[in-house]
Amino acid sequence: MSEFDLIKRLQEIISIKPAAGHPSCVIGIGDDGAVLAVPPGRQLVVTTDTMVEAVHFRSRSAACDLGYKALAVNLSDLASMGAEPAWFFLALTLPSADSAWLESFAQGMADLAGTSGIELAGGDTTSGPLSITITALGLVETGKALTRSGAQEGDLLVVSGTLGDAAFALHTMNAGGTPDIASRNALDRPVPRLQLGRCLQELATSCIDVSDGLLADLGHILLASGKGAEIELERLPGSNSMNALEESERLELQTAGGDDYELCFTIPPQRRSELEQIEKETGNRLTVIGEITASGELLCKTPDGGIYLPMKRGYEHFSRNEAGDK
Ligand code: ADP
Ligand code: MG
Known about the structure:
Elements (H helix, E strand, L loop, with lengths): L2 H12 L27 E11 L10 H18 L3 E11 L4 H18 L2 E9 L3 E11 L14 E5 L4 H10 L6 H8 L5 H7 L5 E4 L4 H12 L2 E5 L14 H10 L6 E5 L6 H9 L3 E8 L4 E4 L5 E2 L18
Parallel strand pairs: 2-3, 7-10
Antiparallel strand pairs: 1-4, 2-4, 5-8, 5-9, 6-8, 7-9, 10-11
Bound molecules: adenosine-5'-diphosphate and magnesium ion.
Adenosine-5'-diphosphate binds next to helix 1, strand 2 and strand 3.
């Protein structure tokens, strides 16, 4: 397969037909640059994320899962900003032009591009060690993007879905076991909470997606907002798959495991009742896990009134706890 055949094939498989009303690109793949028109009254939200073999995924990962996940992690960033997906760019470095691998990779990506309504508008293709970089562009009503910096003292701290499933799947595989389907899907096929992010636009005071672990990502909200938080550990939403684990192991996966791609956000306490309607609308479970304080500290309270001291807060590249798969 030549570079140009490869690009053509990617385009054929991934290209979606933009729905009516979707801002399609003026000029897409085939020119030296894409031309995109931002509709009046809206702003662009731009995010980029790279996935590298052996750092972000296992070398034996299925190509379709890699294609899906590379796009999913970028869409999750758009979700946490409250943006609606519009276009994406795919910079792909491949060790060889293996057409079966490429078809599967593109199909995995196409599945998610189709359901989330995002259009492939360009990219770059090179040979080298496997690495996938996506830049995703979304649209948000002017001035309405959700950020990390607006949390207020007394705000309730909320997370979507369950925490720790993806880390549990990885933990199980690293120990030579086979994870249950639900945990495996959480790891390989995380669902970006796009509809939830849109619903939170008029409600949340701050928002982030949980990619590196709850404590690490919540830490970013606290730093940006100049606040602290108290979490009630027994409230952390978890799935039954983890019931057999020791309490300390489960807590570590839930607070620092990462790869959850759930949203963690804050809302004013008097608006708590609105969560139920959003749960119904989006089908996403929403759990209040604590509240924002003025202290600047992040405290995790155990059911007996003690304080939990985490072994680690989450994944960080270049840190000493960096260990193979992320
Ligand atoms: P140039 O050499 O001028 O940078 P390229 O040959 O890299 O152009 O790309 C030609 C066209 O194909 C461009 O529109 C580019 O955006 C698109 N393209 C290249 N690689 C990819 C890819 N992996 N996915 C989508 N579009 C791609
Ligand atoms: Mg050029």
